[in-house]
Amino acid sequence: METRHIGRPVTRNEDPKLLTGRALFVDDVAMPGLLHAAFLRSPHAHAEIQSTDVTEAAARPGVVAVITADDLGTYWQPGSLLVPPPPVPGLIFHPRCQVPLAKGKVRHVGEPIAMVVAEDRYIAEDALGDIAVAYRALRPVGDLEAALAPEAPLVHDDLPGNLAAEVRRVKGDYASARARAAHVIRRRFWYDRGASNPIETRGVMTAWDARADKLTVWDTT
Length: 221
Hints:
three-stranded antiparallel sheet; Aldehyde Oxidoreductase, domain 3; about 25% strand; alpha+beta
């Protein structure tokens, strides 16, 4: 078994099982009475949700439940803040965490609006097409600098602007150093977005054993 060695590649010990079909992925787990969930996602980057009709989806054979934000009651809460802001004087910080299902407004393409729970994955995905959502499209903003313009549409209507956070740290006398410098260089940097490509994407399965008073969770994370 390989361990970490400085200056040489390390063999991944888990790969042989994963690549030869001998490992257990979440999708491989089958339990009696297993239900599947699928999510209806927004096609708009920015829009008001005027109405959501799940009547037809709920009536489809094999569908167990169709859940929207209004059905969650007090469970509808923004997620927890994973990384707290640093204790820096003058900090501007507006925490806005993701909600389980969109309510009233969608703020990015793919934001989940409704969840269908059904007897199998195919029924759940078919039922998504039965859900009727009326949108009023709003002007989106997809550029960082444009988002800070005074006339930019607000992503979160309860904030005065789209600035999420601003932290300024000052050390030394920049003006004096600039005046003494032989050269002052200014550059604009554009960074591409990075994305991971896992063999197994996100998935969670749970099984409750009432007799043992035990919950078992299979989770890709």
